Structure formats: structure tokens, C-alpha cells
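mind reviewing this stuff:

——
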Amino acid sequence: MDSLFDEQAERAQAHAAPLAVRMRPRSLDEFVGQEAAVGPGTLLRRSIELDDLSPFILYGPPGTGKTSLARIIAGATKAHFSEVSAVTSGVADIRAAIEGARRRLGETGQRTILFVDEIHRFSKSQQDALLHAVEDNLVVLVGATTENPFFEVNAPLISRSRVIELTPLTDDDVREIVRRALIDERGYGGSLELDSDAVEALVTLAGGDARVALATLEFAAAGATVAAAAGSQVRIDRAAIAAAVPTRAISYDKNGDIHYDVVSAFIKSMRGSDPDAAVYWLARMAHGGEDPKFIARRILIFASEDIGNADPRALLVAHAAVKAAEFVGWPECRINLAQAAVYMALAPKSNAAIIAIDRALAEVREGPARAVPNHLRDGHYPGAKRLGRGEGYVYPHGHPEEAADQRYLPEGLERGAFWQPGSAGWEAARAAEDGEGVDEG
């Protein structure tokens, strides 16, 4: 009778579970998307089908199938499947799992697959405890993380594991997952119908996250309980989807990997002179709740690093954006930041400033010690003249065009050693007037 009660309790628990849990794929054939990672013929798929797994880490944003793949492995393998969560487990839990794996291997020869969810949250000591077990083949590690494992997981553990990246689901993938939820008995079994524009709204809101898509569908269905109680088919339109989750779910962690990817795209779009792309990535940061001062600081750096003296006004515009971010804040300063980002994208580009300072720093660090030319030394203190300090210096303001032809670099260095003008804007025009060469690189 206990087994009957257990079975009934399990069925009741499954029925009460969220739609996203109920609709988890039970096999590789039911798994939707991620063809590059687990499609037919891939190494991971063959390893699962042959029950011959080696350590690997699944890396990707939420809702892309990491936990679902782990559940599929649990159902397909003859090995013992253990699971720990880095959020709730400590070193003692890891050691207990490893000891259990050691005992099973010694007594029955059965392997152990250890699934570690949120592996990036493990401390160094916890990861070190795992390392020896992986090295000794006591466990086959299957890790899952939303953060770049090359930044968040110990290098020795990474070197012994394959990293498999899962990408956001395509719109077609999300449509297929929603379709299955509507017709599958684990979902709505045909009792729920979505208008075509409601499906598209759901796909847009999901942002490539299957969990968000199914949760939104479940919220929308819950709002139509009166029609369901009457026994008629529930029909959901676009308005019901929008009411369920009014804001699109777009992955953006201000301290995580996606944050750096979006910031990188923002900077590269300005560098590539694409104002539309710059404003788009700015909007992604704004939508994700990024600190406006952080965005403004990146624009300020960009103004010197990528524009420099091709347009000296860019630095003034960027500095004004910094002050606006400090003084105005969200949401109004989005306008100031957008103006600055568009200006940076449209401005002529030059990286001459950063190249010059980095070349000069390399010379200072690696070159010989070079004396300050005597005529450039300070000659204003008492006794300087007796030492010959500053002797021979020509004051530029007493000459035509406020310039004097004299050496300013130390011996052994010549003009052009560090700074080469770019090929655009004020810098190029000014250099042409002086007869300086233009470095296209």
C-alpha cells in the first residue's frame, strides 16, 4: 500500500508542478533546439545514446535546456545519477556524494554521474573537492552554469571537462515548445487555444527562454478560469499574453557574462560608426537596469580611445553625458546617453592617442634610461644657472607661429616614435598642415 500511496503522491506532485516542469522533455527526441550542441551526430548526443559520458559543463542563459538535458541523461543512463545544487550544498555534501560514488564503484562497479547545477556558485574549496574525484574517474561531472565557465570555474576543472555552449532558443524553437504544451496531456491537452498573434507575442516576450514562454502561457491561462470552468475551450489573445507578463524577458545580468557581451557590442557598434546599433545596445542596457554612470564612463573612455583628436569635441560631449548621468539619472538621462552614443558613432575615428601612450609606456618600461635634455630641465631654482640647467632653451612664443625648432625628445628617440596621426578629422587635417605623415593603421 505504501508504494500505491507513493505513486499517487508522485502523480499529484507532478500535476501540481509548474507547466515548465511538467513539459520537460523525457528523451533526446523530445528535446527542442540546440542542434549544434546535441543534434544528431554531435559528440554529446552520441555520448548520451551510448551511455559513455565524459565530464562536461553546459553553459548558456536561462531556459535553454541545461537542466532538461541533465534529466534526460538521468533517465537514459545505467550509471547512478546524483544531483547537487551549488546554491544549497556545501563541501560536506560534495564529499558525501564522492564517497557514495567510491562505494558504488568498489562494490558493484557502477559509475556515478554527478550533476552540479549553478556550478559557478561553488567556492574554490568546493571546486577543489570535485577536482580530485573527476581526475580519479570516481564521478562523471555534468555541470550547468549561466556564467562563462572560463571566468567562474577553476582552470584545472575546466581543463578536464568539455564546455558545451547552449544559445538562446530561436523563435521557431519557442513556437514548437508552446505548440506541444497546448496539445500534450502533460500540458493543456487541447483545452487551450492561442490566437496566432498571441503566439507571436508570447515568442517575443520569451526572448529565447523556454521557461519564460511556458510560465507566461500558464499565467495567461490562469486568467481565463471562468471559461475553463464552463467546459468550453479557453481562447487566449494577444492582450491576455501582454497582461500576463507586460515586460519582455531579455537576459541581462549586471554582474554576469551577458552584461559584458552587451557592453562589448555597444562599444564595437560605436567604433563601427553604426548609430542604430549603438542605440539598440544602449537600450538593452537600459532595459536591464544598468547603472547609467557605468554607461557614461564607457562612452567617456571611448571618446579618447577611439575618436581622440579626430574630433576633440567628442571628449566634451562624453564628459557632459557623465555629468548628466550623475545629475539626472534614469529615466531621463537615457536621452543624454543616446545623444552621446550617436555622436560617438558618427564622429571620425582615430586610435592614435591610445597607440601613442602605450608605445611610450613600453619604451619607458623596456628601453634604456634616457636623460632629460639639458635645455628642457628646470632652470628656475637657485643655483640652476651655475649647473647649466635650462641653458639653450628657446621660448616658443617669441617665434613665428608660436613654435621653436628644438629637440624635445631625449637622445635616441625621434619624432613619430609614438604618435602617428589618424587619417580622418581634425587630427589628420592638422597633421597635414604640419607635414606629418598619416598612419592608416
Summary: The CA atoms of residues 51 and 314 lie 59 Å apart. Confidence is low (pLDDT under 50) at residues 1-9.
